[in-house]
């Protein structure tokens, strides 16, 4: 559903605003890339929660459009910027809250995915996420 919503939104914005917003978005993506590159010169990776809140329930088939939009767009806050900057991101489960998984995002340098795999594997060796409950 998220892909479909972004496609519809992109078409609407293009029809109503032309390429102006695309250009602004590209400029912001360049600035964000530079900022993350600067931070990643000092650190091996950055760690974020995949979602900044407990996983939401999937809207049922009778849900209205607002519920679908909230479910789709509410889950991209911590991850979508890396679609624009091109930084590799690896998501791994790290625990549960009320039976739902909690995810951790590892963000790395460009072309350094192998380091993210090693960090994730080290975590998985030390922590059994299925036994971690909040």
Structural overview:
Helix content is 50%, strand content 16%. The chain is an alpha+beta fold. It has a three-stranded antiparallel sheet, covered by helices on one side. The relative contact order is 0.15. The mean pLDDT is 87.
What attributes characterize this protein structure?
134 residues, alpha+beta, 3 strands, flat
Shape: flat
Q: Sheet with the most strands?
A: 3 strands, antiparallel
SS summary, helix count: 5
The rounded distance between the terminal residues' Cα atoms is: 29 Å
Query: Quick check: average pLDDT?
Result: 87
Topology overview:
Layout lengths: L1 H16 L2 H23 L3 E4 L15 H9 L7 H5 L3 E9 L2 E8 L5 H14 L8
Antiparallel strand pairs: 1-3, 2-3
Give a quick rundown of the structure.
The chain has helices at residues 2-17, 20-42, 65-73, 81-85, 113-126, and strands spanning 46-49, 89-97, 100-107. It is of the alpha+beta class. It has a three-stranded antiparallel sheet, with helices on one face.
């Amino acid at each position: 559903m998220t892909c479909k919503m972004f496609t519809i939104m992109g078409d609407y914005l293009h029809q109503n605003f032309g390429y102006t917003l695309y250009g602004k978005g590209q400029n912001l993506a360049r600035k964000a890339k530079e900022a993350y590159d600067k931070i990643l010169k000092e650190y091996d990776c950055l760690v974020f929660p995949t979602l900044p809140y407990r996983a939401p329930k999937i809207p049922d088939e009778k849900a209205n459009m607002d519920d679908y939009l909230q479910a789709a767009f509410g889950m991209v806050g911590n991850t979508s910027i890396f679609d624009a900057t091109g930084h590799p991101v690896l998501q791994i489960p790290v625990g549960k809250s009320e039976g739902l998984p909690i995810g951790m995002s590892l963000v790395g340098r460009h072309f350094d995915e192998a380091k993210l795999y090693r960090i994730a594997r080290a975590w998985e060796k030390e922590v059994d996420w299925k036994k971690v409950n909040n």
